[in-house]
């Protein structure tokens, strides 16, 4: 499993001089399959003891259903917990957990971002505070589904991109002046 804990101001893969701005995850609602995986096996395994109440051995079946549900829930929790989005003053780093041992990492330089938008999907998105963030670049789009508080993350990302573009503009001006 990948090490993605962000402790203090450092993270794995951080470059020298790079500042960590903020870290975010997908909303807990992205784990709904894990919750279903916990509840459904337990609920189904609780049916036989309810039907045949005189057989005491059947009361162990819900325990097995609960253990199976906890295993399924743990898998989905690991996928959710270890998938993070790290925003620095230079880039956005998406670390996605794939199964127990696989990890995908995607990076976007903030200065290459063309547009950022977000969408809150109706009533449930408003009530639970989740939505989709779309980050557009020349190469393609980074779509973050079920992001927690997309409006707040959107504002932070806009600020980070503006600062990165201004910093790059100052750097390019200094380079041109030095070349003259």
Structure description:
By secondary structure, the chain is α+β, with helices and mostly antiparallel strands. The protein has a domain at 20-32 and 78-179: Roll (PH-domain like), CATH 2.30.29.30. Helix content is 43%, strand content 27%. It is built from five helices and seven strands. The strands form two sheets. The chain has a four-stranded antiparallel beta sheet. A three-stranded antiparallel beta sheet has the order 5-6-7. The model is unreliable at 1-7 (pLDDT under 50).
Brief summary of the model shown:
The chain is an alpha+beta fold and 180 residues long.
Per-chain topology:
Elements: E1 20-24, H1 32-45, H2 47-51, H3 61-81, E2 84-88, E3 91-98, E4 102-109, E5 113-119, H4 122-128, E6 130-137, E7 141-148, H5 150-179
Antiparallel strand pairs: 1-2, 2-3, 3-4, 5-6, 6-7
Primary descriptors:
single chain; 180 residues; alpha+beta; PH-domain like; 4-stranded antiparallel sheet; 5 helices; 27% strand; disordered N terminus
Overall spatial form:
elongated
The CATH C-level class name of the domain at 20-32 and 78-179: Mainly Beta
Report the span from N to C terminus: 51 Å
Strand order of the largest sheet: 1-2-3-4
Say what the CATH topology of the domain at 20-32 and 78-179 is. Answer: PH-domain like
Uncertain parts: 1-7
Under CATH, the homologous superfamily of the domain at 20-32 and 78-179 reads Pleckstrin-homology domain (PH domain)/Phosphotyrosine-binding domain (PTB)
Separate helix tally: 5
Number of strands: 7
Element-by-element helix/strand order = EHHHEEEEHEEH
Mean pLDDT: 84
Oligomeric state, counting identical vs distinct chains: single chain
Given helix and strand content, the structural type is alpha+beta
């Amino acid at each position: 499993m990948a090490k993605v804990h962000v402790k203090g101001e450092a993270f794995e893969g951080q470059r020298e001089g790079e500042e960590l701005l903020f870290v975010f995850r997908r909303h807990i609602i992205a784990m709904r399959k894990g919750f279903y995986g916990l509840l459904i096996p337990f609920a189904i395994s609780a049916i036989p003891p309810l039907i045949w109440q005189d057989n005491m051995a059947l009361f162990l079946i819900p325990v097995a259903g609960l253990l199976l549900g906890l295993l399924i829930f743990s898998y989905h929790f690991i996928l959710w917990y270890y998938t993070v989005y790290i925003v620095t003053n230079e880039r956005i780093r998406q670390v996605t957990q794939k199964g127990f041992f696989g990890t995908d990492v995607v990076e976007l330089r903030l200065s290459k971002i063309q547009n950022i938008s977000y969408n809150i999907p109706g009533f449930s998105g408003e009530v639970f505070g989740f939505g989709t963030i779309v980050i557009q670049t020349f190469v393609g789009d980074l779509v973050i589904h079920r992001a927690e508080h997309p409006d707040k993350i959107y504002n932070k990302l806009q600020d980070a991109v503006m600062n990165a573009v201004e910093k790059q503009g100052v750097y390019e001006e200094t380079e041109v002046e030095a070349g003259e």
